[in-house]
Amino acid sequence: MYWGDSERGTISRIKRDGTQRFDLLPAIDTTDPKQQDWLGGIAVDWVAGNIYWSDMKRNLIEVARLDGSHRHVVVSSVETPTALAVDPVQGLLFYVGSGIIGRTGLDGSQSFILVNQTGTVSNLILDIDATKVYWCDSGSKSIMKVDYDGNLKTPLLNHSLDNPVALAKIDDYLYWADNNNNKGSIKVAPLSNLSDFKDILKSEGNSLKDLKIFSRRVQKGSNMCAENNGGCEQLCLFNGTSAICACSHSRVAADGSSCEPYDNFLLFSYRSTIESIHMTDHTNKNGPIHAVHNTTFMRNVIALSYDYENSVIFYSDVQMSTINSVQFNGSRNQVLVSHQGRVEGLTYDIVNKMLFWTSNNDASIRSLELIHVSENADNNTQFVKRILMLNSNDKPRGIAVEPCMGMIYWTNWNEETPSIQRAYVTGYGIESIIRTDVKMPNALTLDFDEHKLYWADARLDKIERANYDGTHRTVLAHSTPKHAFSMAVYGDLLFWTDWVLHAVVRASKYSGADVVFLRENIDRPMGIIAVQNTTINCDSNQCKILNGGCEDVCILSKNGTASCQCSRGTLAPDGRRCLLLPNINCDKNQFSCVSGECIPLELTCDNITHCLDGSDERRSY
Predict the structure, then answer these.
(1) How far apart are CA 316 and CA 446, in angstroms?
(2) What percent of the chain has pLDDT over 90?
(3) Suppose 550 and one of 146, 202, 495, 564 were both cysteines; which one would form an S-S bond, judging by CB atoms 3.0 to 4.6 Å apart?
């Protein structure tokens, strides 16, 4: 037996003897209002072994295997779907929507409206042999029927009813549940004359919700999905003529039966969840990957980034004060570094295998080389570098990295001088590239293909684009964005999360037009990333060849040539080596090691290293 609990937001099943109780669709987050009162109805396809349910809040009808696996959206265009019924023999799914009774194939194809302008339909059943649809209308207190094609709509009983809420049929008899205040009753009558009914059960103090007849005579017939799941790896959905294979969080491969992962997809975070969206097909409401949800590691997920090569998502959690990683499939969720405070901006350098993030707590920008990371998060903290310490009034938020240039870009909420800034990844060369006509630069992303910078201003409600150096500014949108928090770019498309619109939004990256709301009714969507197999060609980067000839740090200048800088000391006259300032405390009869020590002059050039850095034996000396 299967049932839905709208208060818990679950669908469960149990054996008739009361054993093997199991939540096949458990509630993800019981504190999320979206997880309550969403369930409209359920129906079982007993031939293929699938269960369908309707989601009134997201206006969806979904299907899964009877154990809840391989969840898949089949219908996404019905307003407030409630009651469902399936005919596996004909391959049809019937549903009740707002003011309508509709029909599709079990795969969601061939949509058709049977009845328009219905009242309050509380229940729906099928007579598979006669191809008839029966329903009860609580508004008019009547029982109605119509054939599968929407013809011959007929009222069967429109008197002597209090509040019909459920129907069931077997052989030539119709059963219905009727409520009067808190008193419920079950009645039965021959189909030939529903006025000739009798009460078979009366309930005092409890209203009735639904009614089913357990009988092999009710669930009979077969279709192409009956044997070997129709040859499908995951879901087999019969549409009346063919067995259609469908995949959950993946796509059907070229062979038409197996499933393969998607190459590109959008990820966004909210609360303790990371969900996925199709970037180009906005009508497909199936997530390309499983939602990532883990209350042990995820309490308030904000910033997102990713490593495509290793199928890893990086995210920050401001409640846990951590930066974490998790595989695309939701496995290996782990803390990379702890005690990082409020991290709202995070980016991954695909070339140098480094993470960069903004720290709101101390107005700094930090980095972590992933080569040093172990499973001990507390130990990893020692490898975190604070590459930039901004002023106390600065508030860095969004961040992005351009690996080939070796530069990081970030937005700065400084109330007196808000700006968009950039610097080399070593912290050198900080400059403000956007300083005018900006109030609260929030979201930020880079378009590697076009060499463009995109950002959104949460105070001025606009999205702009400019060259990497801040020149050639262009306003793309000035009305749609209300409070963009995070941005991403893919192909010709621009995406952002919006706190005021409570949505994930898509638009053209060239004009800001063609706006599409990909997801709506999200309380506060946070980070967003466009996951794609980006191949960044840094062959023209001179720093990738023998480190540009530099002893220490090689960075690209604005004209693309390599230049050397030193993380310690000063650059030598040759522009390549690094020299530490001499130790002024050394006596005149002592040698000042570049590493800072003082040794007797007679110990130099004796083929024995006495300075920590070996500078006493260098040929240059």
Answers:
(1) 20
(2) 68
(3) 564
Residue 423 tokens read as: 């610097």
pLDDT of residue 540: 66
> What's the rounded Cα separation, in Å, for the pair 486 and 496?
5
CA distance 16 to 18: 5
pLDDT tens for 402-427 read 988 889 999 999 999 999 999 999 88
pLDDT of the residue at 429: 86
What gap in Å lies between CA 21 and CA 11, rounded to an integer?
Answer: 11
Reported residue count of the chain is 621
CA 44 to chain centre: 29
In DSSP terms, 198 is beta-bridged to: 188
Q: What is the pLDDT of residues 269-298, one digit of tens each?
A: 999 999 999 999 999 999 999 999 988 999
- Per residue in 550-588, pLDDT (tens digit) is 887 777 765 667 888 876 677 888 888 887 766 668 888
- The answer on pLDDT for 30 being more than 90 is no
Contacts of 376-382 with C-beta under 8 Å, sequence gap 24+, read 377/322, 377/334, 377/335, 377/336, 377/337, 377/338, 378/338, 378/339, 380/336, 380/337, 381/337, 381/338, 381/339
pTM of the shown model: 0.80
- Cβ–Cβ under 8 Å, residues 162 and 180: yes
Retrieve residue 61's tokens: 């009808």
Q: How confident is the model at residue 28 (pLDDT cuts 50, 70, 90)?
A: low
465: β partners: 454, 474
Residue-wise pLDDT for 481-520, tens only, equals 889 999 999 999 999 999 999 999 999 999 999 999 999 9
Contact in structure between 235 and 213 (CB atoms under 8 Å): no
Facing residues of 42 across strands?
A: 53
Structure tokens at 147: 């054939």
As given in the structure block, the two tokens for residue 340 are 């990082």
Q: What is the DSSP letter of 377?
A: H
82 in Cβ contact with 75 (< 8 Å): no
* DSSP secondary structure letters along 106-175: TTS-S-EEEEES---EEEEEEETTTTEEEEEETTTTEEEEEETTS---EEEE-SS-S-EEEEEEETTEEE
Instruction: Mention every residue, 6+ apart, whose C-beta is less than 8 A from residue 77.
Output: 59, 111, 283
CA distances from 55 to 15, 296, 492 (A): 25, 28, 32
* pLDDT at position 122: 87
| Tokens read off for 617 | 């034996």
139 C-beta neighbours (distance < 10 Å), count: 12
CB atoms within 10 A of CB 98: 12
180-218: b (≥16 Cβ within 10 Å) or e? eeeebbbbbbebeebeebeeeeeeeeeebebeeeeeeeb
- Give the pair of three-digit tokens for residue 326: 């998790």
CA–CA separation, 57 vs 43, rounded Å? 18
Distance CA 281, CA 275 (A): 16
Structure tokens at 348: 């991954």
Whether residue 545 is predicted with pLDDT greater than 70 in this model: the reply is no
DSSP letter (8 states) at residue 217:
T
For residues 56 and 614, the model is more confident at: 56
Question: For the ranges 10-14, 101-105, 194-198, 303-307, which has the lowest average pLDDT?
Answer: 194-198
Distance between alpha carbon 545 and the CA centroid of its chain, in Å? 38
CB 348: neighbour CB atoms within 10 A? 23
Distance, CA of 589 to CA of 543 (rounded, Å) = 40
Q: For residues 537 and 289, what is the distance between their CA atoms, to the nearest angstrom?
A: 28
The candidate with the shortest Cα–Cα distance to 63, out of 53, 78, 49, 77, is 53
